[in-house]
Design a protein that fits this description.
The chain has 114 residues and is mostly helical. The protein has one domain: Rna Polymerase Sigma Factor, Chain: A. It is 58% helix and 4% strand. It contains three helices and two strands, in the order E-E-H-H-H. Strands 1-2 form a two-stranded antiparallel ribbon. It starts with a strand and ends in a 22-residue tail after the last helix.
Length: 114
């Protein structure tokens, strides 16, 4: 089935690993995550965040708990959605980006009243 690495640990064949992930994503993750995200974001953001969430799950597939993959994936989706929200705020001027003066009030460039 698999081979061993230099440490003697069993290494799964890449095609088998991919097939296991695709089955997990198709059967247990995609639709619940889509519903979770749909309640929290617009349609375009849902698609982007779902893609990013699945990419993180694929990259960290070995860290995914076998008996609790969906709750773990909800956490990943929550973090990906927060990243998307921060990006939107930065692009829309809701918060200064790294190159802007962080002492200015968001949006109007004036100092807040004291």
């Amino acid at each position: 089935m698999g081979s061993t690495d230099s440490a003697g640990d069993l290494v799964e064949h890449p095609n088998l690993r991919r097939a296991r992930f695709e089955a997990l994503a198709r059967d247990e993750l995609i639709e619940p995550l889509r519903r979770f995200l749909t309640r929290r974001a617009d349609a375009a953001t849902v698609d982007d965040v779902l893609s990013e969430t699945l990419l993180v799950c694929w990259r960290r597939f070995d860290d995914l708990p076998e008996t609790a993959a969906l709750p773990w994936a909800y956490g990943v989706a929550r973090h990906c959605l927060a990243n998307a929200d921060r990006s939107t705020l930065t692009r829309s001027g809701g918060r200064p980006s790294a190159g802007e003066n962080s002492n200015q009030a968001p949006g109007n460039g004036e100092s807040p009243r004291t």
